Amino acid sequence: MTSQMSKSETQHMIAKRVALELKGPCTVNLGIGIPTMVAEYMTEDNIYLHTENGLLGVTDVEEADIDPNLVNAGKLPVGEAVGASFFNSSDSFAMIRGGHVDVAILGALQVDETGVIANWAVPGKNIMGVGGAMDLLVGAKKVFVTMNHTSKDGSSKLLKECTYPITSTRQVDMIFTELAVFEVAGNQLKLVDLMPGVTLEDVKEKTEASFIAL
């Protein structure tokens, strides 16, 4: 049961499930948080990781080989795969806006029942900001979202309508939580998978947004 798992175990479970949806060849941009963990579970060699601060061909790096100048958009140390390319930020965003990123994997604060997300601002709180999320939502061919199903007080983060400022009017393609996996189609959420030990009733109980159970 997910309720018996630690925060880290839950996050890794979500990341592992996302990785199952990635089929190469493709270019994938990983956001901050759970998305960065997806790289640990990718099994295909022809998936190329992109970070908007200027590197295509991101890979893991051993602690002894960390270069403080070589980080991803979340300021975490990264390595260079064989054949990696460096470029400036404007070229990186040109890749995103030009439709050259196949999949963007983002975190979210809220998602509404049509697949529109809020992931950059909490009213009254000073947080990091939007980063490249607006561009990725518009430019990436597919957008996957990873998030906790509920907030700390137990309230649903899958809502009928977002109460935080939305990031883009573009709907995401898939949503992954510790309880379930949803596809977005026809302005509706469609439940396509349950996480281990989770029942449909568990999901209904903790989801404000309406959804179709396939």
From TrEMBL:
Gene3D superfamilies: Glutaconate Coenzyme A-transferase. Transmembrane segments: none annotated. Belongs to the 3-oxoacid CoA-transferase subunit B family. It holds the Pfam family CoA_trans. SMART domains: CoA_trans. Keywords: Transferase. The lineage of its organism: Bacteria, Bacillati, Bacillota, Bacilli, Bacillales. It comes from Planococcus shenhongbingii. This is 3-oxoacid CoA-transferase subunit B. The keyword Transferase applies. It comes from the Bacteria.
